[in-house]
């Protein structure tokens, strides 16, 4: 990873951390947000869907298989019984991707281990020609070693994007081969039964995201 991308990632993480602290200080007594007396600092009283659009009724998520960081195939169905937060991004992204992944890191850090351990954050690369499995692994480790990066051939990735109705536009490389990729800023939460539950809005608050994740995990343990 270039030093420039590393600085961008670190800056995004610092921004997320500062926003999370500010939200905690401002909303500590608000209903359904942070309460230091609750496990993990997050309650579940916030109505489900606070972080974005709730699917009613929840449809099945489109399955797929891509290549994991170790070069082995990884399928969405491998995570049945656990919650998946799915995002479509790329490692050269200058701002949106590191901010989104940093928000998930901050949200999981607010949850107790018995909850966060049941949540898998997965980023599917929309730029597989640069994002090899090894590159994806190093990038995701910057946020959380448990975060998972998936890639594949251009045809394989484009098939997944089509199945999920994800629209991307890959730019024209400049003189040094650099280009950007336009892609959705939202992410998707898939529940333990493989159903789409929430389309998480870009720039959603850490408390709202943590509460929604916690609620879905708890639903699956009842």
Description:
This protein is an alpha+beta fold. It has one domain: Glutaredoxin, CATH 3.40.30.10. The strands form 3 sheets. Strands 1-10-9-4-5-6 form a 6-stranded mixed sheet. The chain has helices spanning 3-26, 96-109, 113-116, 133-141, 154-163, 206-220; strands at residues 52-54, 65-67, 73-75, 83-89, 119-125, 148-150, 169-170, 181-182, 187-190, 196-200. Strand 2 and strand 3 form a beta hairpin. It is built from 6 helices and 10 strands.
What's this model, at a glance?
The protein is α+β, with helices and mostly antiparallel strands and 222 residues long.
Mean pLDDT across the residues is 86
Q: Helices and strands, in N-to-C order?
A: HEEEEHHEHEHEEEEH
CATH superfamily: Glutaredoxin
CATH architecture: 3-Layer(aba) Sandwich
List keywords for this structure.
single chain; 222 residues; alpha+beta; Glutaredoxin; two-stranded antiparallel ribbon; 10 strands; 34% helix; 18% strand; globular
